[in-house]
Write a structure and sequence with these properties.
single chain, about 120 residues, alpha+beta, five-stranded mixed sheet, 4 helices, 5 strands
Length: about 120
């Protein structure tokens, strides 16, 4: 596992790993000290932690413009993040401090909740 340096400084070591499972019904995950530490940070530092998780997952994220909490997935707590440039991502934090990042393009195919709605297709 690769430890993320900037993230480790802010919340104690989030590790990027792929999200392999298909979605199940949302349930409230157990208390997660990593999430509690992330939630205790000011908004600017929260964005920095989420951005670092995205970048460390080999995704493009210039600057996070907005974030939001998303429904939990199994025992993972999640956030959505809009990067400019870079697009939309879901970032899930596991009870072990791992971070799992999905682009919204992939997340829609996996039917994960939390991505912004696609703009309507213009009529022809």
């Amino acid at each position: 596992m690769i430890r993320q340096r900037a993230t480790a400084l802010l919340i104690g070591g989030i590790v990027a790993m792929p999200l392999w499972a298909a979605p199940l019904a949302a349930a409230t995950p157990p208390a997660n000290p990593y999430v509690q530490r992330l939630e205790s940070l000011d908004p600017l530092r929260q964005k920095a932690v989420l951005r670092q998780a995205i970048v460390d997952s080999n995704q493009r994220c210039g600057r996070i413009e907005r974030t939001g909490r998303i429904p939990p997935f199994k025992n993972l707590v999640g956030w959505s993040a809009h990067c400019n440039p870079g697009g939309d991502y879901l970032v899930y934090i596991g009870p072990d401090g791992s971070a799992q990042v999905r682009s919204c393009t992939d997340a829609r195919m996996l039917k994960l909740a939390g991505c912004p709605a696609l703009p309507p297709v213009p009529p022809k």
